[in-house]
Write a structure and sequence with these properties.
The chain is an alpha+beta fold. It is 15% helix and 33% strand. It is built from 3 helices and 8 strands; from the N terminus they run αββαββββββα. It has helices at residues 4-7, 37-46, 124-128, and strands spanning 17-23, 29-35, 50-53, 58-61, 70-77, 84-90, 106-108, 114-116. Strands 2-1-6-5 form a 4-stranded mixed beta sheet, covered by helices on one side. Strand 1 and strand 2 form a beta hairpin. The chain is globular, with a radius of gyration of 16 Å. Zn(2+) binds at residues 79, 96, 103. Its cofactor is Zn(2+); Mg(2+). Pathway: Amino-acid biosynthesis; L-histidine biosynthesis; L-histidine from 5-phospho-alpha-D-ribose 1-diphosphate: step 3/9; Amino-acid biosynthesis; L-histidine biosynthesis; L-histidine from 5-phospho-alpha-D-ribose 1-diphosphate: step 2/9.
Length: 131
């Protein structure tokens, strides 16, 4: 199988590209993470989201600890080929490590304060077994 499709992507100096996970069916943006060529290839091969974790310095199979995997329905790139969009089915309904449905739960209000606008669906300690 040809790897030419990976060459179409504009990887940054670290060999990464931002990846946005969007909920299949609703269009809700769930999260943003990073991908390298290997993680994108594995995502395509397995049908499950695999990212590059900058903090861990390794591949990160979404849901490997929490069980909240992302089943990939489609992989797209933007017009400049420098952002990947994954159309995913979020297993367990929780994409964020904070126990929320998505990672974008803070909204800037009229007074210039960040306000939490989405509830915690499950305590992260119950998900990960640690604080």
């Amino acid at each position: 199988m040809s790897e030419d499709w990976l060459d179409a992507i504009k990887w940054d100096a670290q060999g990464l590209v931002p990846a946005i996970a969007q909920e299949h069916g609703t269009g809700t943006i769930l999260m943003m993470a990073w991908m390298n060529p290997e993680s994108l290839q594995l995502t395509r091969e397995t049908g499950h989201a695999v990212y590059w974790s900058r903090s861990r310095g390794r591949l990160w199979h979404k849901g490997e600890e929490s069980g909240h995997q992302q089943v990939v329905h489609a992989i797209r790139i933007d017009c400049d080929a420098d952002v990947v969009l994954l159309d995913v089915e979020q297993k367990g309904g929780i994409a964020c490590h904070t126990g929320r449905h998505n990672c974008f739960f803070r909204e800037l209000d009229a007074q210039g304060r960040w306000v939490e606008v989405a509830p915690v669906l499950k305590d992260p300690q119950a998900i990960y077994g640690k604080a």
